TrEMBL record:
Annotated protein name in UniProt: MFS transporter
Major facilitator superfamily (MFS) profile domain residues: 32-526
Domain of life: Bacteria
Region called Disordered, residue ranges: 1-24
Primary localization class, coarse: membrane
Protein localization: Cell membrane
Length: 534
């Protein structure tokens, strides 16, 4: 398969930016990295900053709980469904154009949300925001793949991962400050200057590099089948905790996803220009890297979902305080990602990935030992190990997937990497959430009785159980002795921690399975990009 690169129309145009010495800055690898990092920062920041604003949005717009859930779920669903197709759009029309459209669209829909006056408009704009976010992420990886030579791609992906970690870490803190001191709309308005900066840098710096054998058409039936399959899968996972895993509606969506995915695979075998050539998965490292990303996201995002409830509801922290307490983990991700890129460049991805997942396994098991009275020191220890372990896996698995794909499929590979992460995270949150809910339901009556508290009325039992699954102690009637109030809170918190411990224990097993799978990974075998003098 030819890997020679041809200049795009954009590349043929006169350079739009030059250095003082007259040298063109367009296509400069490190400036390309800076530009795509600014764009992807919006998406990563948005993933955590909005969660802080949701309670205020619900109160201000008088939204039902089911509506406010879709402020998050609608965004994630659109992101997961469209990622691979967005990668194909980048391969077909150029990653620069796709990136710029994504940046402008993300900023514009953010502004629309800020000006929305009702919850339905917010949800619709959040779905559109997810679609534009899906354009940004695979395009960013495709641009990095085209700009960096193979020996520097790992470092670039490492820094890119560090930016994502920094943005994710900043989300709860920035969101808490904006909501507390400005308003919830400012959480979305902050994307406007970032998007404009990404646009300006993109027009000045980015340069497309396309291959001679890039796709000339779209596999419309393949896009429709894959989109329907991803929608059925992610929607079924999102709704399963509410409906029940054995509910006919859940089984219909999950079973439909299997049928649609099977039909998609069959169509890819006969399509003239398939969306995802199945030959791509003949690469054992690429297939292993994709599954590794699913398992990593299952264990990490699925388990870490409960940590914010643990910090805020069990330990009584504010959102900003909780964000600060998570800095040991996210800080290690910020520092560890570039270092992981260096290590992978010298050792290859296998050793760092396996070591990282083993460290993550230890951290997950350590988190399962926390209780309601655990101090900041022991929490910080496990958070540090978590960030240290996840960093080489994020960077390594991304390099394995993108680096083992042909250049003309770099966008699809980037979409595949992001889709694997989204599906794994959604599945982990749903499955571990179901296990945790079951454990809390079993433990709460015993903890309540052990605290010497009177039996709960049947009409109030379900509400108490749902609150306990979030670690929220029920409000006590006026005049209740403080000793009884403390006993109620203790029973709820102990039940919550029991469920969280089970979730982390299962996550540690999944993390160990990912470590074993990491043995099948290896360095990318296809050319990354043209040699560049820096």
């Amino acid at each position: 398969m030819s890997q020679s690169l041809t200049k795009s129309a954009t590349a043929d145009a006169p350079p739009s930016g030059t250095s003082p010495g007259g040298r063109s800055l367009q296509g400069h690898p490190w400036l390309t990295l800076l530009t795509v990092a600014v764009g992807v920062m919006m998406v990563a920041l948005d993933g955590t900053i909005v969660a802080i604003a949701n309670p205020v949005i619900q109160a201000d717009l008088h939204a039902a709980p089911s509506d406010i859930q879709w402020v998050t779920s609608g965004y994630l669903l659109a992101l997961a469904v469209f990622l691979i197709t967005a990668g194909k759009i980048g391969d077909r029309f150029g990653h620069k154009t796709t990136f710029l459209v994504g940046a402008v669209g993300f900023a514009a829909t953010s502004a629309a949300i800020g000006f929305a006056g009702d919850i339905r408009t917010v949800i619709v704009c959040r779905v559109l925001q997810g679609l534009f976010g899906a354009l940004l992420q695979p395009a960013a990886l495709g641009l990095l793949r085209g700009a960096f030579p193979a020996d520097r791609l790992n470092m670039a992906i490492g820094i890119w991962g560090g930016v994502i970690g920094a943005s994710t870490a900043a989300g709860p803190i920035v969101g808490g400050l904006l909501v507390e001191h400005v308003n919830w709309e400012s959480v979305f308005f902050i994307n406007i200057p970032v998007g404009l900066l990404a646009l300006a840098l993109g027009l000045w710096i980015l340069k497309d590099a396309r291959t001679e054998n890039a796709a000339r058409s779209f596999d419309v039936p393949g896009i429709a089948l894959l989109s329907a399959a991803m929608f059925a899968l992610v929607f079924g996972i999102i709704k399963a905790p509410e409906w029940g895993w054995g509910d006919p509606a859940t089984l219909l969506f999950l079973g439909g996803a299997v049928v649609l995915m099977t039909a998609f695979a069959f169509w890819q075998r006969v399509a003239r220009e398939p969306l995802i050539p199945l030959a791509l998965f003949r690469s054992l490292p690429l297939s292993a890297g994709t599954l590794l990303m699913v398992l990593m996201a299952f264990s990490f995002f699925g388990a870490i979902f409960f940590v914010t409830f643990y910090l805020q509801n069990v330990h009584g922290m504010t959102p900003v305080q909780a964000g600060v307490h998570l800095l040991p983990m996210t800080g290690m991700m910020i520092v560890g990602s570039p270092l992981a890129g260096i290590a992978i460049g010298k050792l290859g991805p296998r050793i760092p990935i396996v070591a990282g997942m083993l460290i993550t396994t230890v951290a997950m098991f350590g988190m399962s030992t926390l209780d309601a009275g655990s101090g900041n020191g022991v929490m910080a220890l496990w958070f540090v190990l978590m960030g240290l372990g996840i960093s080489p896996v994020m960077v390594g698995a991304t390099e394995v997937i993108v680096g083992n794909a042909p250049m003309e499929l770099s966008g699809v590979a980037g979409g595949l990497q992001q889709s694997a992460m989204q599906v794994g995270g959604s599945l982990g949150t749903a499955v571990l959430g179901a296990l945790m809910a079951a454990r809390v339901t079993d433990a709460l009556p015993g903890k309540w009785a052990d605290a010497g508290l009177p039996p709960v009325e049947p009409a109030q039992a379900e509400g108490l159980n749902q609150a306990a699954q979030l670690g929220i102690a029920p409000p006590a009637p006026a005049g209740t002795p403080q000793q009884v109030v403390d006993a109620m809170a203790g029973a709820v918190h102990d039940s919550f921690v029991s469920g969280m411990s089970l979730a982390f224990a299962v996550a540690s097993v999944v993390a160990f399975a990912a470590a074993v799978l990491g043995l099948l990974t290896r360095r990318g075998t296809t050319e990354a990009g043209p040699a560049v003098h820096i």
